[in-house]
Request: fold
Amino acid sequence: MFDAFIEGLFLVLQWKAFSLMMLGMALGFAVGLLPGIGGAATLALMLPFIFKMSPAEAFAFLLGMHAVAATTGDITSVLFGVPGEAISAATVVDGYPMAKRGEAGRALGAALMSSLLGAVIGAVALALAIPVVRPLVLTFGSPELFMLSVIGISCITSLSGLGARGQLKGFAMGLFGLLLSTIGQERQSGSLRFDMGMMYLWDGLDFVPVLVGIFAIPEIVDLAVRGTAIAGERKPENLKAGVIEGIKDTFRHFWLVFRCSAIGVFVGIMPGAGGGVAQWMAYAHAVQSAKDAKEREGFGKGDIRGVLGPGAANNSKEGGELIPTVAFGVPGSGAMAILLGGFLIMGIMPGPDMLTKHLAITFSMVWTLVIANIITVLLCLLVLDQLAKVTYIRGGLIIPFVLLLVFVGSYTANGQIADLIVTFIFGLLSYFMVLYGWPRPPFVLGFVLGKVIETYLFISVSRYGFAWLKHPIVMLLILVMILVIAYPFIQQRRRGPENPAHA
Amino acid sequence: MRKGRIVFSLILIAVGAYAAYSATAWKFKAALFPLAVSIPLIILVTVQLLLEIFSKGETSDGPTMDLEFAADVPADVARRRAIGAFLWVASFILMVYLVGFPLAVPIFIFSYLCFQGRVGLPLSVTLTAVAWLFFYGLFQRTLHLPFEDGLIQTWLGM
Reply:
């Protein structure tokens, strides 16, 4: 096994594989920065180019590209409040307020370093977990996966607002997101739902225009309202010091980063859940780590832990997603399904062979995840000074360029003007949500998970009736969900009525 | 603000009610999930609405874990600027619809920089050229993204 581990490293370090990994990383870097053009779409576009490569070269190229998109996606989330990738949306919540406070360097330093640690932890998990994870994945059927997704939403809704009314609004927004995810053709019966007679809505609302509208438009409008630079009228921070502070923050909160990475790995292993869930579960966990209500109030306004948690999780989940993909041929996400296509192009069948005959290739994937992330983070740290200076350019100069990225990104979803209109409508909706204090994170998570939850619910009910509720793991997960919902109240009760305004 | 919050809650209730009402006409398979989601949505938002109506203070809610808009700009100025920003966004979409992305991008960027950003003419022209080169080089030449023609080009048969 150790020989295969070392052989995997040498496979990646061969000049051709290494060059292809660098090329993939350059593409992933650009894709991560551009809102709307997702890592999965780029993987699909690049798939035809791997025909003439060896397996190790192909995976170095594809994984190198995929691994860094999540890392660089955090950069636009922090600097402009526009998620570069759908899986970087949670970083906006605290990263952008930090940039507005003049701490872009610190937020970026923390996002990059936590991404690196997350990626390494994910890769280590991939290396260690393959032999032991099989029973766990096989134990989880549709009822368990349904409950897991519901827990994901419960986590974020229970923490998105303080007090009972905050929770009420959080749950309402989660339900609203779930409701909007039902637009379009229903998969089992083929019925059209809420299509309003428009063919555009038959496939449902695409994630990209919705997410970009929800997160980017209110931030742009706020920037226009303030009439200043993103960082306000503060003097430019000492960027180097800020970046170093961000890196130090990562190690100051190492255990939080570690736990959030573990969440990312676990969610990554579960097929269908994906990065959309991992980042928000990690964010919710970061919020839960706050010692008291006052500390928790800082989340959403620029708490460094709100950057570290999602940053770590959305990178560690790459390793997690690879586990079922490599070991059983069950892709953990859309991107992994495309990668599975890469396996088949290479003539490799995922499954037990990957742990015996092709073990060196499996380890080369582990090494690619680690090396690609180290190089990306080092390169980013070198140019971070220049990147963070963008937050000191006045809004009037920045806004048209950000709008260009936002709308071209939205347009890439389906290539229709309707995508732009969807972005605008959701931007308007999001603006009023922020204005009237309805939290956006539960809405987004509900929307992202809606189709998955509906499918799991349908399969569970069709196969087991309501007996699925009696499955031991389901009952355990229901208990976890109740604890997740009750936790803020328990925490508040323990502290006593120190802050009655939020009760 | 309170009036706005009440109207927003009423809109959410109306959306939930419309969804539940529509779902009653569908097959069980298609209706199950929308009903399971819209009914609790209506209940929760109604509770929130009642709390909003009968609560005494303006700021009866706890803070949310989300963005907060700038508080240092007077409310009427903020409202005026926000409407202006949304109009600019809408005008970009309208331009794309009328003349297509490749023409809308330079027209919009130049207009915004000149009229809204109050940037001088030379810098506006330079930045517009940079933006257009970026758009053309990356999205059209490198990524070959297909951009639809605008309505005007279609009318003129260009």
Q: What stands out?
A: Chain B touches chain A through 73 residues (CB under 8 Å).
